Amino acid sequence: MADETIVTLTLNPSVDHSVTVACWVKNRTNRPLQFRRDPGGKGINVSRVVHRLGGTTVAYGLAGGATGQLVRAALDREGVPSELTEVAGETRINTIITDQSDGSQTRLNLPGPHVTDEELEALYLRLDAIPNPCCLVVGGSLPEGVPPEVYETVLASFTARGVRTYLDADGDPLRFGIRAKPHLIKPNEYEIAELVGERLRDLEEFIDAARSLAGRAANIVVISLGEQGAVAADTDRVLRVRSPRVEPRSAVGAGDSMLGAMVLSLSRGEDLAEALRWGAAAGAAAVITPGTELCRPEDVHRLLPEVRVEPVA
Fold first, then answer.
1. Domain enclosing residue 307, as ranges
2. Burial class (CB in 10 A: 0-12, 13-18, 19+), 153
3. Closest of 197, 210, 219, 267 to residue 241, by C-alpha
4. How many domains is the chain partitioned into structurally?
5. From CA 14, how far away is CA 88, in angstroms rounded?
6. Does residue 199 contact residue 182 with C-beta atoms inside 8 Å?
């Protein structure tokens, strides 16, 4: 495996069904106007974005049953290399319903298969055998049977090998994961509030949270704030990111697109401000695509000049 390879880990991948209806009506048969199916899961989406933007990546994880085969086949069609460890249970299907009448999106995320200790150990052995990549990205929900400390275990193992690590999770997996002090975490506004134990009400409070966690929870803390952009902090500075103004179609995959573009930029030696520019452009590019589609490279490059990254005093 080449040194520039970005490895991702998805323990609870999915096949995402995206359905668009003119107007959702309860207790009635709703006939979709549009339907698409994509492989899903945070790490898998990061690999897909990295590949689209010209990077080298391999997606690792767990997959099982007919749905797991659909995930493998979809990644093959996109040209994204994958090494998914087989499990006996069935990989989950998620459904996203977009209502055109009001722009709302309803997500139905299934829990995923039960993973045995033996299956998890087989994955660990596979990860241990990876020649050192440039970085590792882990994130997303955990299937039944996987302990909440799993990200801490994996991150600590790769950090000890000198690999730069990235974490995008919430709840206990995030709380345990930051004990391994990854290079970067990317919570959204809800995940950061859960992490610090209080609701954050305005931009200044998000800035304070990023500043207080930088250097403790991770070297870099990026808090994504939807259409408000993002704030980011390392031990030296805090940056405010202003995203391009776009007409939103679907927010699904925006955070994963943002993370994938940032990781690729940092892996190429670009500084944090430049990585944030790429991340914000990719996130905005994902928002203008339908359903579960991720960012398109041409949209990322078009939106990149519109991103503003400014220091915060």
1. 6-24+32-312
2. middle
3. 210
4. 1
5. 15
6. no
Locate tokens 């970005």: which residue? 6
Cα distance between residue 167 and residue 259, in whole Å: 10
- What CATH code is carried by the domain that includes residue 129? 3.40.1190.20
pLDDT (tens digit per residue) in 278-301 = 999 999 999 999 888 999 999 999
Digit-coded pLDDT (tens) for 108-156: 999 999 999 999 999 999 999 999 899 999 999 999 999 999 999 999 9
- Identify the DSSP state of 270: -
What is this structure's pTM? 0.95
In a domain, 1, yes or no: no
Non-local CB neighbours of 121 within 8 Å, separated by 6+ positions = none
Return the active site residues. 256
| Residue 236, helix vs strand vs coil | coil
**CA 136 to mean position of chain CA atoms:** 12
307 is a domain residue: yes
In a domain, 223, yes or no: yes
Residue 251: how many CB atoms within 10 A of its CB? Answer: 17
Buried-state track 15-48, b at ≥16 Cβ within 10 A, e below 16: bbbbbbbeebeeeeeeeeeeebebbbbbbbbbbb
Domain for residue 49, yes or no? yes
